[in-house]
Design a protein that fits this description.
Elements: E1 2-3, H1 11-17, H2 39-53, E2 58-63, H3 70-83, E3 87-92, H4 106-115, H5 131-136, H6 139-156, E4 159-164, H7 171-183, E5 189-195, H8 202-213, E6 217-220, H9 226-237, H10 243-250, H11 256-268, E7 272-273, E8 276-277, H12 298-305, H13 311-322, E9 326-327, H14 329-336, H15 340-352, E10 356-359, E11 362-365, H16 368-375, H17 380-396, H18 401-408, H19 417-433, H20 435-446, H21 453-469, H22 473-485, H23 494-511, H24 515-526, H25 533-549, H26 553-570, H27 573-590, H28 593-610, H29 622-630, H30 634-650, H31 656-669, H32 673-683, H33 693-707, H34 731-742, H35 746-760, H36 766-769, H37 773-782, H38 786-802, H39 806-820, H40 823-836, H41 839-855, H42 859-876, H43 879-890, H44 914-924, H45 929-936, H46 940-954, H47 959-968
Parallel strand pairs: 2-5, 2-6, 3-4, 4-5
Antiparallel strand pairs: 1-3, 7-8, 9-11, 10-11
Helix pairs in contact: 2-3, 4-6, 6-7, 7-8, 9-11, 11-12, 13-15, 13-16, 14-15, 14-17, 17-18, 19-20, 19-21, 20-21, 21-22, 21-23, 22-23, 23-24, 24-25, 25-26, 25-27, 26-27, 27-28, 28-29, 29-30, 30-31, 31-32, 31-33, 32-33, 33-34, 34-35, 35-37, 37-38, 37-39, 38-39, 39-40, 40-41, 41-42, 42-43, 44-46, ...
Length: 970
């Protein structure tokens, strides 16, 4: 990590960033010459940096092909920011470290820890340690620590984080960047990423899409124009290029690295005189510009640039390049078995030649393309041999295990006996730090002939664990089943080897969503004699969790109780946590939120104080977040569910879809429908191992029905499967009933909704199924079925009795008010829904209040209630609700007042909802997406969704056009 606060800004950059006319071209030497013609891009950087200085964070993505000038642009931005007093930290992702967790974040962590008074997390112990000690240091804890310290730095002033070559970043570093990206909404933090265009890894594509949807600015660097190429060549030569040289560089595709390397190579070979290629050279044909024969690629150019070096120097540089981007003289001397003075002399020449550059105390190749070209000069077999030798050297000096594994994995076939011994010793550490690297290396270790049974079994156990931790449960299951089916585990080693393998196998089945298979594995273990009390408690806890998801609730009570008691007696957080999580989910489904909340809070406290078991499938935040949401404590619920999502992303991911679904439903209840839809669409990208996909589609369809945009028949909704979560079972018939109602079939709507009531009696659906009660009693009220409304009111009372909240009290009051024709109770429901923060339900209650007021002869109040309902509906774009409410009240002779807009057009300014109008006005005032989000207390994603809708309705293409349209209308 380079800390760039110490970089002195060049005069050109100070002038560029200060007052007065900016320079057309920036006369930098070396890589900075690639900024020629980048005036517009630099202006955008200056504007973004100034916003951050003013307190508004942001993200900038710099995209372009290799050699186009991404690093030069980042360097310029760093100097500009430093000149404004901002602290700047720089990191580079490296190709060889793509499988090392948080490798791209390591320099940032080192720099921030160095500045912090006391790191929250101690260094990872190098010696063999217990699994619990290891997982405390795993990625989630590191990321949380990084966030806290970054926030502390931002509190001291604006802060810039730069990550070059982000396309090489490992998935854990990308997750860290995603979390850091959330901070820009409220902190003076600027994140700059340089990436290559397609193809991209899935994790990177998801991150960039999320950044862009949240308002990140994309700076795309294209090729230089002919005039800009001419300036670059003139700066390199000190004179104007002649026709032959101009023709030669014109074939470089406007890539500044290619151009500068080509010109430097020609100069070095003394092939240029007075700005022109010499006519007596034999390297190029010079019959005319069209006949000039250039090197076929940048590779050829770079290779020719090395011709002036002695053969031994070129060989050492090639070997250094094969070992990675960084160059460390002492390590290189050990690996090559060459005198240190010889290695240092080669490094000095390479620095003088511009092949290597210094970054503080570190040396690295100036560009990864140069490193790749040098490494490719060695035969593949030689590169592998060199990297294996480097691994042995690093073993001897006890270097970080992931660096050693990275080199060892470059080979093929079985490992040497000494390497296997090392692997057995470090398997726990390596699996905790870099599970993907560990999985690959352990597979190689198992191919080694002559392994004794104990060593083989231990390596295989860690291989299955590494496969699970690296997110490959399918392969983990296959390896575990193969091991168990071979019958190679002796009877005396079942407890030591067989039961741990079955534990991992059950987790692999669970992670794939195969809960029945997981239960079968657990039951087979519990039927075996010889289990320790600890093992028995853990297996019972896991059985309870599977059964609660399978709705085998009769089993859950007993299994969870045994797990909790055993966990408490043995002081085991896994057994206790699994049992508590399962029991908490059961209580949540039953509607006993007090007990569920207590269990959820204890899970969070114990999790944060006793370590983070990675394979237990305990969700320390999910249960508490869902209970808080149902208790109408939305702000803390949202934060807790966001933590649950982050935890799921970094562990098995089994509950990731359900956690995102829970957050989307929370947004729906709060009236943040656009934000809910964004979350529901994100659910589509998550593998459906937990049965979240169908409920997500149902909730998305529910919004579409209310907005009048749903197309299809009730039967077209996604069908439930055997993984369906009971919390969401009410959604499909609810949406189907509303679809029938939109089609004018009130009878089918009533029958569909009433069909749910038969399932309410057992109480298992009551946790969230009461959400449908207002629609159910509304349909019953319209149909004149007051008896049904009374039955629903009785169930609503039961729900409220189990855990009373404003929203549950409001639901019960609404049901009783309609069943009894009591306008006062319905008016009470209006206020309770408002207090609960559920505006859509408040609108429904207002709509249902109006006809009761008419019946009492209070037509003015009825009209006011209708106006209130329609105004709230309009805020959600709920056009069908508006039309339904107005049509129903017309039957009573009540029409709306003129406070709101009726029959909103489909396009033009009048088509904008009140929220969209507010966003458009803020755009016209020059606010960025994050600034609008802060002003409106929503996320940048929601702002982007509103802007997309605004552009569609106004038939415009850009924010500038929106600002002009608003200004024109006054």
């Amino acid at each position: 990590m380079r800390e760039l606060s110490e970089i002195e800004p060049t005069a050109a950059l100070v002038e560029e960033s200060g007052a007065g006319e900016p320079l057309e071209y920036l006369p930098f030497d070396g890589p900075d010459s690639r900024l020629i013609g980048r005036r517009d891009e630099l202006d955008r950087m200056v504007q973004r940096i100034d916003r951050v200085v003013a307190g508004a964070g942001g993200i900038v993505l710099v995209e372009g092909e290799s050699g186009i000038g991404k690093t030069a642009m980042l360097t310029a931005a760093a100097r500009l920011a430093s000149a404004r007093g901002m602290r700047v930290l720089w990191s580079e992702a490296k190709e060889l470290e793509q499988r090392v967790p948080l490798a791209a974040m390591r320099p940032l962590r080192v720099a921030i820890d160095a500045a912090a008074s006391a790191p929250e997390f101690p260094p990872m112990p190098e010696g063999r340690s217990a699994v619990t000690a290891m997982v405390i240091r795993h990625e989630m804890g590191i990321i949380e620590d990084l966030l806290v310290k970054t926030e502390n730095h931002c509190a001291a002033g604006p802060f810039v984080l730069i990550v070059d070559d982000a396309h090489w970043a490992d998935s854990s570093s990308l997750l860290a960047l995603q979390r850091l990206g959330e901070l820009v909404q409220r902190l003076p933090l600027l994140i700059l990423l340089a990436v290559r265009p397609l193809p991209r890894a899935r994790h990177l594509s998801v991150l960039l899409a999320e950044f862009e949807s949240g308002g990140a600015e994309l700076v795309r660097l294209g090729p230089m124009s002919d005039s800009e190429v001419a300036v670059l060549v003139e700066l390199s030569l000190g004179s104007v290029a002649g026709p032959l040289l101009s023709a030669a560089v014109s074939r470089a595709g406007g890539n500044p690295l290619y151009i500068t390397e080509l010109v430097a190579g020609l100069l070095q070979a003394e092939m240029i005189e007075s700005g022109e290629i010499t006519s007596d050279t034999t390297t190029f044909a010079v019959n005319g510009p069209k006949d000039i024969r250039l090197p076929e690629s940048l590779t050829d150019v770079i290779v020719r640039r090395l011709d002036h070096l002695p053969a031994r120097s070129r060989q050492i540089l090639s070997m250094a390049a094969a070992l990675g981007q960084g160059v460390e003289a002492i390590e290189l001397s050990e690996v090559l078995e060459a005198p240190l003075i010889d290695v240092w002399n080669v490094i000095s020449v390479a620095v003088a030649s511009g092949i290597l550059v210094r970054s503080g105390a570190e040396l690295s190749f100036r560009h990864d393309l140069i490193r790749q070209v040098l490494a490719d000069q060695l035969p593949p077999a030689t590169r592998v041999t060199l990297q294996l030798r480097a691994a042995r050297v690093l073993m001897s000096i006890e270097a970080p295990v992931e660096r050693i594994a990275m080199y060892l994995l470059t080979g093929d076939g079985p490992l040497e006996a000494t390497v296997v011994e090392w692997l057995v010793d470090v398997a726990e550490r390596l699996t905790g730090r870099a599970p993907e690297l560990a999985a690959g290396l352990l597979a190689r270790g198992l191919e080694t002939p002559g392994l004794d049974a104990r060593c083989y079994d231990e390596l295989r156990l860690w291989q299955v664990r590494a496969l699970l931790w690296s997110g490959n449960p399918t392969r983990a299951e296959a390896v575990a089943r193969e091991a168990l089916s071979q019958g190679a585990i002796a009877a005396g080693r079942q407890q030591e080897v067989g039961n741990p393998l079955r534990w991992l196998l059950a987790h692999a089945c669970f992670a794939r969503g195969n809960l029945l298979d997981a239960v079968a594995v657990v039951d087979s273990v519990l039927a075996r004699p010889g289990l320790t009390a600890l093992q028995e408690g853990q297996f019972h806890g896991f059985r309870a969790l599977c059964c609660v998801l399978l709705e085998r609730f009769d089993i859950v009570e007993e299994a969870s109780a045994r797990a909790i008691s055993t966990g408490a007696a043995c002081e085991d957080p896994v057994a206790w946590g699994l049992g508590s999580f399962a029991l908490g989910l059961l209580r949540f489904h039953q509607g006993f939120l007090d007990e569920a909340q207590q269990l959820g809070d204890r899970l969070m406290r114990n999790f944060e104080s006793s370590g983070r078991p990675r394979l237990s499938h305990i969700q320390p935040y999910s249960l508490s977040g869902r209970c808080l949401a149902e208790s109408d404590r939305y702000v803390v619920a949202e934060k807790t569910l966001e933590r649950a999502i982050r935890y799921s992303e970094h562990n098995s991911g089994v509950f990731l879809g359900l956690n995102r679904l829970a957050l989307a439903q929370l947004h729906f209840l709060r009236g943040r429908w656009d934000e809910s839809l964004i979350g529901l669409r994100a659910c589509r990208e998550i593998p459906d191992v937990s049965g979240h996909a169908a409920p997500a589609k149902w909730l998305e369809a529910l919004v579409a029905v209310h907005r009048g945009t749903f197309v299809g028949a009730p039967e077209s909704l996604a069908a439930p499967d055997d993984r369906e979560c009971p919390s969401y079972r009410h959604l499909r018939p609810w949406v189907q009933a509303l679809i029938y109602e939109t089609q004018g079939d009130s009878s089918a709507a009533f029958d569909t909704l009433w069909g749910l009531c038969g399932e309410f009696e057992d109480g298992l659906l009551s946790a969230m199924a009461y959400h449908v009660f207002p629609d159910l009693v509304r349909v019953a009220f319209v149909a004149g079925r007051m008896d049904i409304a009374g039955k629903v009111a009785a169930v609503a009372d039961l729900v409220d009795a189990r855990h009373s909240t404003p929203s549950r009290r409001a639901t019960a009051a609404l049901c009783h008010g309609l069943a009894e024709g009591d306008a006062a109770l319905v008016a009470q429901a209006v206020e309770s829904f408002r207090e609960a923060g559920r505006p859509w339900y408040q609108a429904q209650a207002n709509e249902l209040l109006a006809p009761l007021l008419v019946g009492e002869g209070r037509e003015a109040q009825a009209r006011s209630a209708l106006d209130d309902a329609v105004e709230l509906y309009a805020g959600f774009g709920a056009e069908w609700d508006i039309a339904r409410a107005e049509a129903h009240l017309r039957e009573f002779g009540i029409r709306r007042g003129r406070r709101g807009r009726r029959n909103r057009p489909k396009n033009g300014l009048q088509a904008l909802t009140p929220t969209e109008q507010k966003v458009a006005l803020l755009i016209a005032h020059g606010l960025s997406n994050p600034e609008i989000a802060t002003r409106m207390f929503v996320s940048p994603r929601t702002v982007q969704s509103h802007i997309s809708s605004i552009l569609t309705k106004l038939r415009l293409q850009s924010r500038i056009q929106v600002a002009v349209a608003i200004a024109t209308q006054g």
